[in-house]
Amino acid sequence: MGPAEAVAILGAGAAAGAVNAVVGSGSLITFPTLLAFGYPPVVANVSNNVGLVPGNVSGSVGYRRELAGQRPRLIRLGVVAAAGSAGGAAALLLLPSSSFQVIVPVLILIACLLVLVQPWLSRRIVARRSRRATSADPGAGAADSGGRTSKLPAAGREPLSPVLGAGVFASAAYGGYFGAAQGVLVIGLLGTFLDETMQRVNGAKNVLVAVVNGVAAVIYVIFAHVAWLVVLLIAVGSTVGGALGARFGRRLPPLALRIFVVLIGVVSAVKLLFF
Question: Domain limits at 47?
Answer without folding.
Answer: 3-136+152-274
